[in-house]
Write the structure tokens for this entry.
Amino acid sequence: MPSRRDVLRLAAVAAASGLAGCTGSDFDAPETPTGEWHTARRDVRNTACAPEATPPESKPGRRWSRAFQTGPPVELLASADSLYAVRANGTTVVSRDDGAWKWGTYGRDQTPAAGLPRAAALAPDSLYTADGRYARAFDRDGTFRWQTAYPENSGGEARIYGVLPTGDGVLLGGHGRLSVFDSNGDYQWTFADTGGSGATYPALAADELYVAGPGPLLSLSPRSSPESLLGRPPSTEWVSDAPGGPTWPVVTDEYVVLGDTDRAGGGRTRGNLHVYRRDGTHVRSISSDGGHSHLAVASDQSAVLYGTGVFGDVEGTVTALDLSSGETRWTREDLSVAEWGTSLVVAGDTCLFAEATDGHSARVHALDVATGETRWVLATERTPEALIVAGSQVYLATAGGLVAYE
């Protein structure tokens, strides 16, 4: 029940602005346009799937490359005409057509402390970035808009794992918490009831917000008018029985899929893949060797593809799981997937991933989504650090810079 102070505050705000239309847009789910890649997992549903993409059917050739003198990109994003290389000390933006430099976001203390990740996401008119100290927004032409410190940090440093745009701002998945800023950089709320202090990843679909953190998978309810006016976080709609240590939650029209992983703390010799309906009903859990750091949805949303890496004497695999029946469509036991975020994606009817070995691999594989058969293998000069597909082009980030193939 609201306190007397809250009631008085509500009355004051209502008198100033009226209650109509005050529910905000924390849960609005912007669409990623055809031919673009706006988040670490392409879209706010974290599907890592570009259904309309047309990657090469045979081994591609290099279109262009661009070298970096310092620091490889840790994440790639793509708009209609630009490629965004998210790096430890800023973001470099180049032309998708020829790799020509356009602008960068360097300066303004954008280098996080050692060991802290950096992440970014595109919105229709903005680039949002987050590092160990600040959330920032830039216009699509590189104009700096705002910089806001994390209020719950009190001058400390934060781990930001996942960044998603909303209809009017940005969601930041941090260490055991989810924080929200609006498009003007004003802090809105923090949800901290995630079950611990580990990595936290959000997903958006329609008016639903899913949170995968150290504890169980959660679904949050859109905030009521009083909650919005008081700056309170949303309420919990349902709580799953999935354990913590998750991947990004992947949302289809019917299901929410979640994998176990120990990405932050080392390898895992056994893991589970959990499938839920969007109302929280548990459908099934699949156990297999290795953690599931990499999930991608088939273009028709009928299957999820996942890869596991090499750890100790455990060999990796690449597998396609039918979401409706729970049956394995195919498994490649002769292949394993590199241990970084966007290392396995689906583009049209092709699954692409960077290979993992006991050493450093420099190969990208393309498999038929329906059968798992190899379409082509591409040897690269340097180890891939990030991989996306936009339109007909395959973009790789390596320790040496950016390369575009088609």
